[in-house]
Design a protein that fits this description.
Blueprint lengths: L4 H10 L8 H14 L4 H10 L5 H4 L2 H4 L3 E4 L4 E4 L14 H10 L14 H4 L5 E2 L17 H12 L13 H14 L7 E2 L1 E2 L5 E2 L18 E3 L2 E2 H6 L15 H5 L11 H18 L2 E6 L12 E5 L5 H26 L2
Parallel strand pairs: 3-4, 7-10
Antiparallel strand pairs: 1-2, 5-6, 7-8, 9-10
Helix pairs in contact: 2-9, 2-13, 3-13, 8-9, 9-13
Protein backbone atom coordinates (compact mmCIF):
# COMPACT_ATOMS: atom_id res chain seq x y z
CA UNK A 1 0.00 0.00 0.00
CA UNK A 2 1.48 3.34 -0.99
CA UNK A 3 1.57 5.83 1.88
CA UNK A 4 0.30 9.31 0.93
CA UNK A 5 2.83 12.12 1.10
CA UNK A 6 0.83 13.88 3.81
CA UNK A 7 0.84 10.72 5.90
CA UNK A 8 4.56 10.20 5.35
CA UNK A 9 5.29 13.70 6.62
CA UNK A 10 3.01 13.20 9.58
CA UNK A 11 4.75 9.96 10.51
CA UNK A 12 8.09 11.74 10.48
CA UNK A 13 6.67 14.25 12.93
CA UNK A 14 5.31 11.66 15.33
CA UNK A 15 7.90 8.90 14.97
CA UNK A 16 10.02 10.32 17.77
CA UNK A 17 9.41 10.25 21.49
CA UNK A 18 5.75 10.95 22.06
CA UNK A 19 4.19 13.51 24.28
CA UNK A 20 1.33 12.95 26.66
CA UNK A 21 -1.22 15.73 26.45
CA UNK A 22 -0.17 18.83 24.58
CA UNK A 23 1.28 21.76 26.51
CA UNK A 24 -2.21 23.14 27.14
CA UNK A 25 -3.35 19.84 28.62
CA UNK A 26 -0.46 19.74 31.08
CA UNK A 27 -1.05 23.38 31.94
CA UNK A 28 -4.73 22.73 32.69
CA UNK A 29 -3.78 19.85 35.00
CA UNK A 30 -1.35 22.18 36.77
CA UNK A 31 -3.96 24.92 37.02
CA UNK A 32 -6.47 22.55 38.60
CA UNK A 33 -3.87 21.37 41.11
CA UNK A 34 -2.77 24.94 41.89
CA UNK A 35 -6.37 25.74 42.76
CA UNK A 36 -6.90 22.59 44.83
CA UNK A 37 -3.84 23.10 47.06
CA UNK A 38 -4.57 26.77 47.82
CA UNK A 39 -4.30 27.52 51.52
CA UNK A 40 -2.76 24.14 52.34
CA UNK A 41 0.64 23.24 53.75
CA UNK A 42 1.35 21.69 50.36
CA UNK A 43 1.06 25.10 48.70
CA UNK A 44 3.53 26.54 51.22
CA UNK A 45 6.08 23.80 50.55
CA UNK A 46 5.63 24.02 46.78
CA UNK A 47 6.32 27.76 46.91
CA UNK A 48 9.52 27.07 48.86
CA UNK A 49 10.69 24.83 46.03
CA UNK A 50 9.72 26.85 42.96
CA UNK A 51 9.53 30.35 44.40
CA UNK A 52 6.68 32.50 45.73
CA UNK A 53 5.44 33.36 42.26
CA UNK A 54 5.91 29.89 40.80
CA UNK A 55 2.99 27.68 39.82
CA UNK A 56 2.49 24.02 39.05
CA UNK A 57 0.96 25.08 35.75
CA UNK A 58 4.13 26.94 34.75
CA UNK A 59 6.49 24.03 35.44
CA UNK A 60 4.17 21.38 33.98
CA UNK A 61 5.91 21.14 30.59
CA UNK A 62 9.52 21.11 31.81
CA UNK A 63 10.00 17.33 31.63
CA UNK A 64 8.96 17.27 27.95
CA UNK A 65 11.27 20.16 27.14
CA UNK A 66 14.21 18.15 28.50
CA UNK A 67 13.77 15.91 25.45
CA UNK A 68 15.31 18.74 23.41
CA UNK A 69 18.68 17.96 25.01
CA UNK A 70 20.72 16.06 22.42
CA UNK A 71 23.95 14.09 22.35
CA UNK A 72 26.63 15.15 19.88
CA UNK A 73 28.08 11.83 18.68
CA UNK A 74 31.20 13.58 17.43
CA UNK A 75 32.57 14.48 20.85
CA UNK A 76 29.96 12.92 23.20
CA UNK A 77 28.93 16.37 24.44
CA UNK A 78 25.37 17.38 25.24
CA UNK A 79 23.54 20.48 24.08
CA UNK A 80 20.05 21.96 24.05
CA UNK A 81 18.69 21.89 20.51
CA UNK A 82 16.42 24.93 20.38
CA UNK A 83 15.56 24.17 16.74
CA UNK A 84 13.82 20.95 17.79
CA UNK A 85 12.23 22.17 20.99
CA UNK A 86 8.56 23.01 21.40
CA UNK A 87 7.63 26.72 21.31
CA UNK A 88 6.34 26.57 24.88
CA UNK A 89 9.83 25.55 26.05
CA UNK A 90 11.18 29.05 25.45
CA UNK A 91 9.85 30.13 28.85
CA UNK A 92 12.33 27.86 30.65
CA UNK A 93 15.40 30.07 30.47
CA UNK A 94 17.87 27.94 32.43
CA UNK A 95 18.77 25.31 29.83
CA UNK A 96 21.74 24.16 31.93
CA UNK A 97 19.33 22.65 34.46
CA UNK A 98 17.67 20.65 31.71
CA UNK A 99 21.00 19.53 30.28
CA UNK A 100 22.27 18.34 33.68
CA UNK A 101 19.08 16.41 34.41
CA UNK A 102 19.17 14.83 30.93
CA UNK A 103 22.84 13.84 31.23
CA UNK A 104 22.31 12.34 34.68
CA UNK A 105 19.39 10.29 33.36
CA UNK A 106 20.66 9.52 29.86
CA UNK A 107 22.13 6.02 29.96
CA UNK A 108 21.56 4.79 33.50
CA UNK A 109 18.96 2.21 32.41
CA UNK A 110 21.52 -0.21 30.99
CA UNK A 111 18.91 -2.87 30.23
CA UNK A 112 17.83 -0.74 27.24
CA UNK A 113 21.24 0.18 25.87
CA UNK A 114 22.17 0.72 23.15
CA UNK A 115 19.06 2.70 22.34
CA UNK A 116 18.15 5.87 20.53
CA UNK A 117 15.85 6.80 23.42
CA UNK A 118 17.52 8.29 26.53
CA UNK A 119 16.46 6.83 29.85
CA UNK A 120 14.64 9.96 31.00
CA UNK A 121 12.30 9.71 28.00
CA UNK A 122 11.28 6.25 29.19
CA UNK A 123 10.05 7.73 32.47
CA UNK A 124 6.97 9.05 30.65
CA UNK A 125 5.16 5.81 29.80
CA UNK A 126 4.51 2.12 30.30
CA UNK A 127 2.86 -0.18 27.77
CA UNK A 128 0.73 -2.73 29.61
CA UNK A 129 -1.24 -4.94 27.22
CA UNK A 130 -4.98 -4.27 27.20
CA UNK A 131 -5.59 -7.93 28.09
CA UNK A 132 -4.37 -7.13 31.61
CA UNK A 133 -6.61 -5.60 34.26
CA UNK A 134 -3.85 -4.10 36.36
CA UNK A 135 -0.25 -3.00 36.34
CA UNK A 136 2.28 -5.63 37.47
CA UNK A 137 6.02 -5.07 37.19
CA UNK A 138 6.77 -8.31 35.35
CA UNK A 139 4.27 -7.73 32.53
CA UNK A 140 5.32 -7.06 28.95
CA UNK A 141 5.74 -3.33 28.37
CA UNK A 142 6.68 -2.47 31.95
CA UNK A 143 10.23 -1.66 33.02
CA UNK A 144 12.40 -0.56 35.91
CA UNK A 145 12.20 3.02 34.61
CA UNK A 146 8.57 3.27 33.49
CA UNK A 147 6.13 5.96 34.53
CA UNK A 148 4.86 4.14 37.62
CA UNK A 149 8.35 3.80 39.06
CA UNK A 150 9.42 7.29 37.91
CA UNK A 151 6.53 8.88 39.82
CA UNK A 152 7.60 6.96 42.92
CA UNK A 153 11.17 8.18 42.45
CA UNK A 154 9.99 11.80 42.36
CA UNK A 155 7.81 11.26 45.44
CA UNK A 156 10.77 9.78 47.32
CA UNK A 157 12.95 12.84 46.64
CA UNK A 158 10.17 15.22 47.73
CA UNK A 159 9.91 13.22 50.97
CA UNK A 160 13.64 13.69 51.54
CA UNK A 161 14.46 10.09 50.62
CA UNK A 162 16.78 8.55 48.03
CA UNK A 163 15.08 7.37 44.82
CA UNK A 164 15.51 3.83 43.61
CA UNK A 165 18.28 3.01 41.14
CA UNK A 166 18.67 4.00 38.31
CA UNK A 167 16.88 7.34 38.82
CA UNK A 168 19.09 10.40 39.32
CA UNK A 169 17.07 13.30 40.73
CA UNK A 170 19.40 15.72 42.47
CA UNK A 171 16.97 18.11 44.10
CA UNK A 172 13.35 18.74 45.03
CA UNK A 173 12.88 21.25 42.22
CA UNK A 174 13.61 18.64 39.57
CA UNK A 175 11.54 16.09 41.49
CA UNK A 176 8.54 18.43 41.60
CA UNK A 177 8.85 19.30 37.91
CA UNK A 178 9.00 15.60 37.08
CA UNK A 179 6.08 14.69 39.36
CA UNK A 180 3.82 17.44 37.99
CA UNK A 181 4.38 16.27 34.45
CA UNK A 182 4.25 12.51 34.97
CA UNK A 183 1.10 12.55 37.07
CA UNK A 184 -0.50 14.25 34.09
CA UNK A 185 1.07 11.77 31.67
CA UNK A 186 -0.38 8.85 33.60
CA UNK A 187 -3.94 10.01 32.94
CA UNK A 188 -3.36 9.98 29.17
CA UNK A 189 -4.56 6.41 28.45
CA UNK A 190 -2.08 5.71 25.66
CA UNK A 191 0.84 6.36 28.02
CA UNK A 192 -0.14 3.44 30.23
CA UNK A 193 -1.75 0.70 28.14
CA UNK A 194 -1.24 -0.53 24.62
CA UNK A 195 -2.87 -2.78 22.06
CA UNK A 196 -0.43 -5.20 20.43
CA UNK A 197 -1.04 -6.33 16.85
CA UNK A 198 0.37 -8.78 14.37
CA UNK A 199 1.00 -8.05 10.70
CA UNK A 200 -2.61 -8.91 9.85
CA UNK A 201 -3.89 -6.29 12.29
CA UNK A 202 -5.12 -8.92 14.72
CA UNK A 203 -4.89 -8.17 18.45
CA UNK A 204 -2.33 -10.41 20.19
CA UNK A 205 -1.30 -10.93 23.81
CA UNK A 206 2.44 -10.11 24.16
CA UNK A 207 2.63 -12.00 27.46
CA UNK A 208 1.56 -15.23 25.74
CA UNK A 209 3.54 -15.22 22.49
CA UNK A 210 7.20 -15.12 21.55
CA UNK A 211 8.68 -11.73 22.36
CA UNK A 212 10.30 -11.72 18.91
CA UNK A 213 6.79 -11.86 17.40
CA UNK A 214 5.53 -8.75 19.20
CA UNK A 215 5.13 -5.67 17.01
CA UNK A 216 5.28 -2.30 18.76
CA UNK A 217 3.01 0.65 17.92
CA UNK A 218 4.78 3.12 20.22
CA UNK A 219 1.80 4.06 22.34
CA UNK A 220 -0.50 4.60 19.37
CA UNK A 221 2.08 6.57 17.36
CA UNK A 222 1.95 3.88 14.67
CA UNK A 223 -1.85 3.68 14.59
CA UNK A 224 -3.07 5.98 11.85
CA UNK A 225 -6.47 7.66 11.73
CA UNK A 226 -6.65 9.54 8.43
CA UNK A 227 -3.67 11.89 8.54
CA UNK A 228 -3.13 11.82 12.31
CA UNK A 229 -1.87 9.25 14.77
CA UNK A 230 -4.13 7.90 17.49
CA UNK A 231 -1.65 9.12 20.07
CA UNK A 232 -1.64 12.68 18.74
CA UNK A 233 -5.44 12.74 18.75
CA UNK A 234 -5.50 11.83 22.43
CA UNK A 235 -2.72 14.32 23.26
CA UNK A 236 -4.61 17.24 21.77
CA UNK A 237 -7.33 18.98 23.78
CA UNK A 238 -7.77 21.90 21.40
CA UNK A 239 -11.42 20.99 20.83
CA UNK A 240 -12.15 21.50 24.54
CA UNK A 241 -11.46 25.25 24.35
CA UNK A 242 -9.91 25.45 27.82
CA UNK A 243 -7.83 28.58 27.27
CA UNK A 244 -7.73 31.42 29.77
CA UNK A 245 -10.14 30.64 32.64
CA UNK A 246 -12.48 28.34 30.72
CA UNK A 247 -10.82 25.30 32.35
CA UNK A 248 -12.48 26.19 35.65
CA UNK A 249 -15.62 24.26 34.78
CA UNK A 250 -13.52 21.15 35.42
CA UNK A 251 -12.92 22.10 39.07
CA UNK A 252 -16.18 20.76 40.60
CA UNK A 253 -15.54 17.31 39.18
CA UNK A 254 -11.87 17.38 40.21
CA UNK A 255 -12.82 18.26 43.80
CA UNK A 256 -14.85 15.05 44.04
CA UNK A 257 -11.88 12.81 43.24
CA UNK A 258 -10.45 11.30 46.42
CA UNK A 259 -7.08 9.82 47.29
CA UNK A 260 -6.41 6.06 47.08
CA UNK A 261 -6.67 4.40 50.49
CA UNK A 262 -3.23 2.80 50.28
CA UNK A 263 0.34 3.86 51.01
CA UNK A 264 1.28 6.81 48.79
CA UNK A 265 4.08 4.79 47.17
CA UNK A 266 1.31 2.66 45.64
CA UNK A 267 -0.76 5.55 44.33
CA UNK A 268 0.93 5.58 40.93
CA UNK A 269 -0.04 1.92 40.51
CA UNK A 270 -3.66 2.69 41.38
CA UNK A 271 -3.67 5.53 38.83
CA UNK A 272 -2.11 3.24 36.22
CA UNK A 273 -4.83 0.66 36.83
CA UNK A 274 -7.48 3.30 36.25
CA UNK A 275 -5.92 4.33 32.93
CA UNK A 276 -5.69 0.68 31.89
CA UNK A 277 -9.45 0.44 32.38
CA UNK A 278 -10.00 3.54 30.24
CA UNK A 279 -7.68 2.18 27.55
CA UNK A 280 -9.45 -1.18 27.39
CA UNK A 281 -12.67 0.68 26.58
CA UNK A 282 -11.21 2.93 23.89
CA UNK A 283 -9.21 0.18 22.17
CA UNK A 284 -12.23 -2.14 22.09
CA UNK A 285 -13.97 0.31 19.76
CA UNK A 286 -11.19 0.26 17.14
CA UNK A 287 -10.59 -1.86 14.07
CA UNK A 288 -7.18 -2.31 12.45
CA UNK A 289 -5.86 -2.76 8.94
CA UNK A 290 -3.02 -5.04 7.94
CA UNK A 291 0.38 -3.58 8.68
CA UNK A 292 1.41 -0.88 6.20
CA UNK A 293 4.74 -1.82 4.68
CA UNK A 294 7.00 0.73 3.06
CA UNK A 295 9.00 -0.17 -0.01
CA UNK A 296 12.04 -1.33 1.93
CA UNK A 297 9.92 -3.58 4.13
CA UNK A 298 8.07 -5.43 1.37
CA UNK A 299 8.66 -9.15 1.70
CA UNK A 300 10.04 -8.73 5.21
CA UNK A 301 8.53 -8.52 8.67
CA UNK A 302 6.53 -5.38 9.30
CA UNK A 303 8.08 -2.43 11.10
CA UNK A 304 5.50 0.02 9.83
CA UNK A 305 2.09 1.27 10.83
CA UNK A 306 -1.56 0.28 10.88
CA UNK A 307 -4.61 2.22 9.73
CA UNK A 308 -7.41 2.21 12.26
CA UNK A 309 -11.18 2.52 12.10
CA UNK A 310 -12.80 4.31 15.00
CA UNK A 311 -15.88 2.06 15.00
CA UNK A 312 -18.44 3.45 17.43
CA UNK A 313 -15.89 5.87 18.86
CA UNK A 314 -15.99 9.51 17.80
CA UNK A 315 -14.31 12.83 18.67
CA UNK A 316 -17.15 13.83 21.01
CA UNK A 317 -16.71 10.68 23.07
CA UNK A 318 -12.96 11.25 23.14
CA UNK A 319 -13.41 14.84 24.31
CA UNK A 320 -15.64 13.69 27.18
CA UNK A 321 -13.07 11.14 28.32
CA UNK A 322 -10.30 13.74 27.98
CA UNK A 323 -12.20 16.07 30.30
CA UNK A 324 -12.51 13.32 32.89
CA UNK A 325 -8.83 12.43 32.59
CA UNK A 326 -7.74 16.06 32.98
CA UNK A 327 -9.84 16.27 36.14
CA UNK A 328 -8.15 13.14 37.45
CA UNK A 329 -4.72 14.53 36.60
CA UNK A 330 -5.29 17.77 38.50
CA UNK A 331 -6.89 16.04 41.47
CA UNK A 332 -4.24 13.31 41.63
CA UNK A 333 -1.46 15.89 41.60
CA UNK A 334 -3.06 17.98 44.32
CA UNK A 335 -3.83 14.94 46.45
CA UNK A 336 -0.30 13.51 46.28
CA UNK A 337 1.23 16.86 47.20
CA UNK A 338 -1.12 17.18 50.16
CA UNK A 339 -0.20 13.66 51.24
CA UNK A 340 3.54 14.39 51.01
CA UNK A 341 3.18 17.69 52.86
CA UNK A 342 0.53 16.98 55.47
Amino acid sequence: MKIPISLTLMLLIYSGTSLAWDSQGHQVIGQIADELIKGSHAETEVKKIIGPNGTLAFISGWADCVKSVKLNPGDSSFYYDSKKSFPECDKYENKEEQIKYAVDNWSSCKEYQPSTMPCHARYHFTDVAIQRDEYLSDEYGTSSVDIVKAINAAIAVLKGETPDVPFHIDNKKDALRLLVHLVGDETQPLHVASVYLNEKGEVVDPDKISKQSVLENQGGNKLIDGTATLHSEWDSIQSLELKEDKWRYLLPGAKKITSPEVDIMKWSTVWANDSIGVSKTLFSKLTFSECIKTGKEKGTSCEGNWYIGLGTSNPLQRAKIQEQQLQKGGANLANILKAIYQ
